[in-house]
Inverse folding.
């Protein structure tokens, strides 16, 4: 007799999609589902700058002893300088990936505001709600984006802010919105920052794709604006995409505060929270990023590689729109993803009848497409009756 009466967990749709793709024997299959960057050979390469840093680490690392609850402090400092410059008062901690950073951000928010509500615009990354609710945070949603018209519902965002309570929080995508690719304009970011500060709300910024939209400085502009205007901001960041360190689970959480005492206390609280969840973060990826960011030659090499990745994604968006005028909207969107206005039946047909794999909600990973696969992708879309946006 089983000693554990465990409920059968619901299968993760994306993991199921990965398994189905791998088992598909069709030679012309196209993978637009998994959210990783790929080159035109369908590979997710290790960056040359990363390889060089790893070689240096192997040669000079003298110990595998613990680093401490908040991880590699030099990694946190150098990454913080990259994100915020030298103008913000920030404290931070290394975390196991961006997910670990979001969990710590949710935990510290819940500790300070146990009766607060975290507002999440939909559609969003599917794990935002489960991850934050697992920390005890009460969440609520509002509609951020209409996928049928491919329009951001900015007025809806402002209306939601108007009915919040002081101390509530808003989950914001710093750039390259997942899953829509639809980012606010500069004017909208300025108005949003003003409204958040005016209503005493706390931004929690998920910063996972910086550098893959318009460039590093451009992609960080919105985060820096929010930090400048709002008294307290939580930022969860990941090195998975822009450094290609997916499996090394490299991330960090930051508290930016206009009050130095608050930032100092947050530093200690991050460590206490980490102790209760995973104790100490893994070191390798953080050490690699630290080595790259502390060496100007490696930094330049990494930035050059990142610009090539960004250029490739933009070229794919342009090629898709040129091949199919109904996809013209993807050129205006940024980063790895776009959310196509497809029905469930159309998605199933793309997968089952055409071997074009994408998420069930119509999200495509533009960066997963190879240039030679675009014609097949467009032909498949047209075959299932895709007609673009609705008026």
């Amino acid at each position: 007799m089983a000693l554990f009466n465990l409920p059968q967990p619901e299968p993760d749709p994306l993991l199921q999609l990965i398994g189905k793709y791998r088992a598909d024997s069709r030679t012309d299959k196209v993978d637009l589902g998994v959210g990783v960057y790929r080159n035109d050979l369908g590979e997710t390469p290790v960056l040359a700058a990363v390889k060089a840093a790893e070689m240096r680490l192997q040669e000079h690392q003298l110990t595998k002893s613990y680093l401490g609850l908040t991880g590699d402090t030099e990694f946190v400092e150098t990454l913080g300088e990259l994100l915020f410059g030298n103008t913000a008062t920030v404290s931070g901690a290394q975390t196991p990936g961006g997910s670990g950073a979001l969990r710590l951000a949710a935990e510290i928010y819940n500790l300070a505001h146990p009766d607060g509500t975290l507002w999440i615009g939909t559609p969003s990354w599917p794990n935002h709600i489960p991850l934050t609710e697992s920390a005890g945070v009460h969440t609520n949603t509002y509609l951020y984006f209409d996928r049928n018209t491919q329009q951001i519902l900015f007025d809806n965002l402002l209306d939601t802010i108007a009915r919040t309570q002081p101390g509530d929080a808003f989950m914001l995508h710093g750039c390259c919105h997942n899953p829509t690719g639809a980012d606010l304009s500069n004017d909208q970011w300025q108005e949003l920052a003003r409204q958040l500060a005016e209503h005493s709300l706390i931004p929690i910024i998920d910063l996972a794709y910086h550098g893959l939209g318009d460039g590093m400085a451009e992609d960080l502009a919105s985060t820096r604006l929010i930090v400048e205007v709002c008294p307290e901001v939580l930022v969860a960041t990941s090195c998975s995409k822009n450094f290609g360190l997916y499996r090394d689970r490299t991330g960090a959480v930051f508290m930016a505060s206009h009050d130095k005492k608050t930032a100092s206390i947050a530093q200690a609280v991050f460590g206490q929270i980490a102790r209760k969840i995973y104790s100490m973060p893994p070191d390798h990826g953080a050490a690699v990023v630290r080595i790259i960011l502390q060496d100007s030659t490696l930094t330049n090499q990494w930035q050059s590689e990142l610009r090539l990745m960004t250029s490739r994604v933009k070229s794919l968006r342009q090629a898709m729109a040129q091949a199919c005028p109904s996809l013209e909207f993807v050129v205006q969107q940024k980063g790895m993803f776009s959310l196509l206005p497809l029905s469930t039946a159309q998605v199933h047909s793309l997968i089952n009848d055409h071997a074009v794999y994408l998420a069930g909600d119509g999200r495509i990973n533009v960066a997963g497409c190879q240039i030679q696969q675009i014609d097949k992708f467009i032909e498949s879309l047209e075959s299932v009756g895709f007609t673009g946006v609705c008026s």
Observations:
- The longest helix spans residues 296-323.
- The chain has a mean pLDDT of 95.
